[in-house]
# Entry
Amino acid sequence: MFIPLSVLETVPKRSSLGEHLGDCLSKTEIRSLAQCLCSGAEPAIHSPDPGRPPLTHDGLRAFVSNFVLPHAADRPPLKQNDRIMVVLPPGPENAVALLALGNYHSCAPINASCTAIELKDDVLRLQAKAIITSKDIGKRLNLESLREELNCQIFYINGRILGPAGLFDVFMPEDTDVVISSRPAEAHGLDDISLILHTSGTSGKKKVVRYSLRTLLVGTWCIVHSWDLKPGDINRM
# Structure
């Protein structure tokens, strides 16, 4: 299995591990999240259903590299740093969606059990341009009736029944005139914001924490070093 970030495995001599890895990353040819995904036929994501085959590293890399979001005919395509709320339950599709979206846009995952009021507050606070969720969650939150009020596009994902775990198709509400782009959006660079998290903080009010792609990659490789992770290790969380 080829691991692109393995070029960062040198041990720092004077600076901290994070600073050292950040400097090493700047000297590589890595410029997008998709470039950091491993290559090979080994499993990358397993399904809770033992009957489903795992998604391989090659399959994951291909899906992320070719991921395209449609867009409403009366709106421009989503671009770099546009914020997308991710409202999906835990599972393989959620994991793949975060990687695919984070390669091109700023994804902001929130709890899938949120209320419509909570979702509305988060969308307005972040000035999100889109929400990606499941049809069932969208129906529970009455998203289509809130679409104009929130001034954002709605995307639904439909997990594929057959084939590797985690892959999905994206569609929009039936009353939307949809444009299917012929190629993916421009991928994020190292200093674009790929992940946005909410934290309650000590005051009880939600605070927004922004992570650039560079920060995510350095943080991930710091964990690899700190935990002494090997290619065959599996995260069961």
